[in-house]
Amino acid sequence: MTHERQHDVDAFPRAPTQAEWEAMSGEERARVVEALPAEVTWEEMPMPEGDLHTEARWRAQDALQDYFKPPRRRAYVSVALPIYYPGERRFAPDLLVVLDVEPHLRGKWLVSHEGKGLDWVMEVHVGGDRKKDAEDNVRRYARLGIPEYFIYDRARERLEAYRLPSPDAREYVRMEPEQGWYFSEVLGLELQLDGERLRFWAGNALLLDMEERNERLREMLGRMEQRRASAEQVRWLDETEHRLEEEARRREEAERRRAELQSELERLKSRGP
């Protein structure tokens, strides 16, 4: 083993190999899960890429988390979570999805402990060395058996996608878009770039993030308020019309009564003393 390889192995914690994991007792496994850190070091992470990078991640995460709610298929969606594959160097992808698992809060994903690996990964690229996302991760994620890998290159406003052609394959096939749209077989969703936004579609339905859902809610409440105000105005007009009609009826009744009294007075005067 070279010095560089030895340093690579020893410098950062790794999960046991699958054979080592299977040979452990339940208590030993629990100690491993507890001991593996729920964070990665600066040496393992790419340099911060600013708001464009952060915004793209949380918008995508929020849209997917909202979509994968009951009664839909269960899914765990997370960002920058430390991932431990058996015997492999850990990593923390920008966005990940694992299907058919409980979506509770986690500090890390230990494949042997969880019983499955990642189903879908996306990396967001804004600046720095693009080689990690566009070359290194393409090989790495395919070797780990991650079925689909998307790259959102926000600096160039481009979307790239890769898929394993079969469950046993360990080399990606590049996905070709149809008129700018990519279909994710894993998520069952279509992806497209709309200006500066990455969009997810479920059929004809656009998946909205929290900011957009709140804006829709504000618009809906605004329309409800307008309808309520209009209804109140109509009710006020109806009540005003009713009052005016009632007042007119009372005036007519008073005028009729006055006319009757005047007629009676004239009759009495005509009879004389």
TrEMBL record:
Name of the featured protein: Putative restriction endonuclease domain-containing protein
Pfam families: Uma2
Native organism taxonomy: Bacteria, Pseudomonadati, Myxococcota, Myxococcia, Myxococcales
Alphabetized CDD domains for the sequence: DUF820-like
Domain named Putative restriction endonuclease: residues: 44-193
Family annotation (InterPro entries): Nuclease_put_TT1808, Restrct_endonuc-II-like, Uma2
Keywords: Coiled coil
Superkingdom of the source species: Bacteria
Residue runs in coiled coils: 207-271
Species this protein is from: Archangium violaceum Cb vi76
